[in-house]
Amino acid sequence: MSAAQRVCIKVTPDKSLFHKQDLVSLSCFSEDPGPWTMFRNTSRVIKEPCEMWGKEGDSTCSVEGLRDKDSGLYWCEKNRHRSASVYITVTESLGTPPPPSFPPCPFSNSYSPSPSPSPSPSPSSSPPVSPSSSKLLVPLVSSGLGLILILLLLFILWCKYCRRKQTQEKRRRRERRGRKRGERQEREIQDRERVRERGEEKEGESKKKVKEGETE
């Protein structure tokens, strides 16, 4: 059995799209005894342990007051064994419908698979779905959901980049206006200084002529 099959991660509440200030709890369930550590990858930090961003418990990690920076990939890990990852997105939008929940965790005590209903003998009924077909549908749904979440995250990052760029452009414009205003004031001071110097020169010449006339 692979490492991803020996442990699974459970998200409570069971969804992948959260709003700001929400509470989320992540738990590691495994057939192997011993505590597991929760890690995450975000746009800022790679492989960040729970103790750096959440409240750590016995193979659990909870986050109160989610923020944009908490969007990312989460998984359980121990002794180089790790679970499959889940992607969690934090958004400000309140009108976005919740995406499908994660696949059930087979090692969780709360997981109790229900028996499959027997197909109806009616000739109009659809043929039963084989177990192999069900296994193929799960990765297809997960990959489609992952693509949607990645696109949503890219859109949020793009909006932040545009706002940051607009703020920087406004700051540069204010700095240019300030420099121009300072240069204009400097020129005015220099002009007044030159006018004053010319006035002093003319006054000195006039006094000199008066003295020369008195001497004659």
From TrEMBL:
Segments of this protein annotated with the region Disordered: 98-134, 169-216
Keywords: Membrane, Transmembrane, Transmembrane helix
Record field: compositional bias (Basic and acidic residues): 183-216
Transmembrane segments: 136-158
Extent of Pro residues compositional bias: 114-130
Domain of life: Eukaryota
Alphabetized InterPro entries for the sequence: Ig-like_dom_sf (IPR036179), Ig-like_fold (IPR013783)
Signal peptide positions (record): none
Protein name, as recorded: Ig-like domain-containing protein
Organism: Mugilogobius chulae
Regions of compositional bias (Basic residues) in chain numbering: 169-182
